[in-house]
Design brief:
The chain has helices at residues 14-29, 31-34, 67-70, 87-97, 107-112, 114-123, 142-148, 163-174, 179-188, 197-200, 203-217, 236-244, and strands at 3-10, 37-45, 61-63, 77-80, 101-104, 129-130, 156-160, 252-256. With 261 residues, it is α/β, with parallel strands linked by helices. The protein starts with a strand and ends in a 5-residue tail after the last strand.
């Protein structure tokens, strides 16, 4: 039986445009059809209808009102790509209440409201909530923890979880770049936001490791309680010192199970 996904997309920026392009490409190649799924982006919610878009929305209708998607009974899945924990929260919770499946990469939202999300999903058991891209989507790790390691006891989760800072640290180590130069290059390439605080101060990794802690150990840890140190105070000399110790510097997310569980 063919599964029909009629999608309402929230966010028409770089990431949103990339998602639309991927859906269009997979539809045209028959990739969705081969796995028994038809996918159509019906509406895209954007901030401005006048802003030029560097992607082809195909047949999708651009709207600016959230309810144009949330109130559309023909849409059975929403993809949230707005970011933040204010409007995105309203969109996600209203979608769940309306019985619409949710796909999001918003690790800050999930980490901030994990118990509330679990309660909302329990009250709407037919809704599928998918967040693979929220943490290390290229590995992938979330689905792996949810399925492949169910029979195993995990004692530690550790890894590089932020591509922006890893790019910057590699520049500083390999090319001897200073922090400001590495940040400027990351921003010019679109890897870092105009306000890079969430990345460079470790807040992004803070939210990600809180989510992985829940998946790996079943423990809910408020993400703001996770001790965090960013990379903004690093200088070229720090890498020279690390090299003298035959070491390097990386921003890691780490979670360890205590002996008492």
């Amino acid at each position: 039986t063919m599964v029909h996904l009629r999608i309402g997309l929230f966010g028409g920026g770089i990431v949103g445009g990339g998602v639309v392009d991927l859906i269009n490409r997979f539809t045209q190649s028959g990739r969705f059809r081969d796995i028994g799924v038809s996918v159509e982006v019906v509406k895209i919610c954007v901030r401005s209808l006048d802003k030029p878009r560097d992607f082809d929305p195909a047949k999708a209708i651009l709207v600016t009102n959230y309810d144009d998607i949330l109130g559309d009974s023909s849409i059975n899945c929403i993809v949230e790509l707005m970011g933040g924990v204010t409007s995105a929260k309203d969109v996600v919770f209203k979608a769940i209440s309306a019985g619409k499946h949710v796909v999001t990469a918003n690790k800050a939202l999930i980490a901030s409201f994990l118990p509330e999300l679990q309660a909302a999903l329990k009250a709407n058991p037919l809704v599928s909530f998918n967040f693979e891209a929220a943490v290390c989507g290229g590995i992938p790790i979330i689905h792996t923890l949810q399925t492949d390691f169910m029979a195993d006891k995990i004692f530690k989760v550790m890894g590089i979880m932020n591509g922006t800072t890893n790019f910057m640290l590699c520049k500083m180590e390999d090319e001897g770049a200073e922090y400001d130069a590495a940040l400027k290059e990351a921003q010019s390439l679109g890897f870092a936001e105009a306000d890079p605080t969430a990345d460079v101060e470790g807040h992004d990794v803070q939210a990600k490791i809180a989510l992985l802690t829940k998946l790996a150990f079943g423990k809910t840890v408020p993400f703001h309680t996770v001790p965090t140190t960013g990379i903004s105070k690093l200088a070229k000399v720090d890498f020279e010192y690390a090299r003298s110790l035959k070491s390097t510097i990386k921003l890691l997310g780490t979670s360890t199970l205590n002996p008492d569980g």
